[in-house]
Amino acid sequence: xxxxxxxxxxxxxxxxxxxxxxxxxxxxxxxxxxxxxxxxxxxxxxxxxxxxxxxxxxxxxxxxxxxxxxxxxxxxxxxxxxxxxxxxxxxxxxxxxxxxxxxxxxxxxxxxxxxxxxxxxxxxxxxxxxxxxxxxxxxxxxxxxxxxxxxxxxxxxxxxxxxxxxxxxxxxxxxxxxxxxxxxxxx
Length: 187
Fold this sequence. Notes:
CATH class of the largest domain: Alpha Beta
Strand content: 15-25%
Shape: elongated
CATH architecture of the largest domain: 2-Layer Sandwich
Helix content: 25-40%
Oligomer: single chain
Mean pLDDT: 79
Low-confidence stretches: none
Number of helices: 5
Strand order of the largest sheet: 1-2-3-4-5
């Protein structure tokens, strides 16, 4: 118990020493001639200069439960999942920004299947936001398969479809969240 107390006192002493040594003998805002006498005016001036904070603003964040970003609120993510919804998913990681499908073949008897990986480079809906790779697997026997990356029109078609769907989702979200202005209009 004494060693814990010793560590606690040592840490506090070091922090105080660092705090006091960084002052250089001057306190910030130490010149009273530069600040108004009235406390309300000082608060107002500090807030205007961005040196203060309002306690009510921090309480508002706690009252509302904070701000959370979910995958369902990201239009690009939703559009990607909706575009490839016919394929089984092998790995999906929203925080890592990647979707990987499992091998998929439209015909059970076919010896050819594809796998798609979509990497999100940004959350903005633009042409360079996605890195899409399509892999092709051809099997002569179940144990003899050749896998290669497919550089065909599938990549550009997928990207185009995802971006169009994401733009549609964003437009729908904008119309849902748009609130009518209720104030007086001046013309």
